[in-house]
Amino acid sequence: MTYRTVDVRHQPGLVQVTLDRPHRRNGIDHEVIADLNTALDAAEGDPTCRAVVLRGRDGVFSDGMDFATAAADSGSADGGQAFFDLLTRFTTTDRVVVSQVDGRVAGGGVGLAAASDVVHATPRSTFALPEALWGLLPCCVLPFLVRRVGFQKAYTATLSTQAVDAREAHRIHLVDELSETPETVLRQLVFRLVRLDGEIIGDAKRYFHRLAPIDERAGSVAVAEFSRLMSSPVVRRRITDFVDHGRYPWER
């Protein structure tokens, strides 16, 4: 398979997916979403695969929405719907999705982590939702983040826009394992997963999804609000100013 934005390696029991857009700080756009879906297709097509491992590189997991792409589109709901569908797929695929974070995570990158089944992080990692600074909200991220850390923690993170360090992220259960050597933690996890019948992983994920559902209504609300905010002339001007001139919204 051909990938444009990720590096994919098949190993016994797992598929390793590395976000590979260092010049865009691993920003998320339609190409990244398509490549991640293709990687999931490959994992689901391998009966020996039990886990999909998602990483960044060079100290950045993902900075979230790719503003360069966002500045060029029309603010339609398409991008929001595709991203929400990807996060939903993380929670329903019959493979364990593991995010291994080593460095900065922001915006939609937090969504990738929040929708993952397991999150490992190094102590230098940070997590932030800066969208409100641009006049946006982490619309598609929040249903998954609320399910993982609870309403109030997600609400506070949205309004404060402040980054939390890895220890705090671990305390509020955004991170499951905090380690200087996440590879070791991953090996221990995969050692157990390969001993499971592949069907039980899907059964467990579907059952837990019914216990704490993120339904179509949540998706419709998230995508509609994303589209409304992205269509705002003020928001679009702020994004364009940043892409064209490197100017932040508060630098007027």
What structural category characterises the helix and strand content? alpha/beta
Q: Classify the beta-strand content into a percent band.
A: 15-25%
| Biggest beta sheet attributes | 6 strands, mixed
Number of H/I helices: 11
Count every beta strand, where a strand is a DSSP E run of 2 or more residues.
10
The largest sheet has its strands arranged as 1-2-3-5-7-10
> Could you give the order of the helices and strands?
EEHEEHHEEHEEHHEHEHHHH
Low-confidence stretches: none
Helix percent band: 40-55%
Description of the structure:
The protein is α/β, with parallel strands linked by helices and 252 residues long. The protein is built from eleven helices and ten strands. Helix 1 runs parallel beside helix 3 (78-92) and helix 5 (142-149) packs across helix 6 (151-160). The chain is globular and about 55 Å long. The mean pLDDT is 95.
Provide a concise account of the structure shown:
The chain has 252 residues and is of the alpha/beta class.
List keywords for this structure.
252 residues, alpha/beta, six-stranded mixed β-sheet, 11 helices, 10 strands, 48% helix, 16% strand, globular
Set out the fold topology.
Layout: E1 6-11, E2 14-19, H1 30-44, E3 51-55, E4 60-62, H2 67-72, H3 78-92, E5 96-101, E6 104-106, H4 108-115, E7 118-121, E8 126-128, H5 142-149, H6 151-160, E9 164-165, H7 166-171, E10 177-178, H8 182-193, H9 198-211, H10 216-230, H11 233-245
Parallel strand pairs: 2-3, 3-5, 4-6, 5-7, 6-8, 7-10
Antiparallel strand pairs: 1-2, 8-9
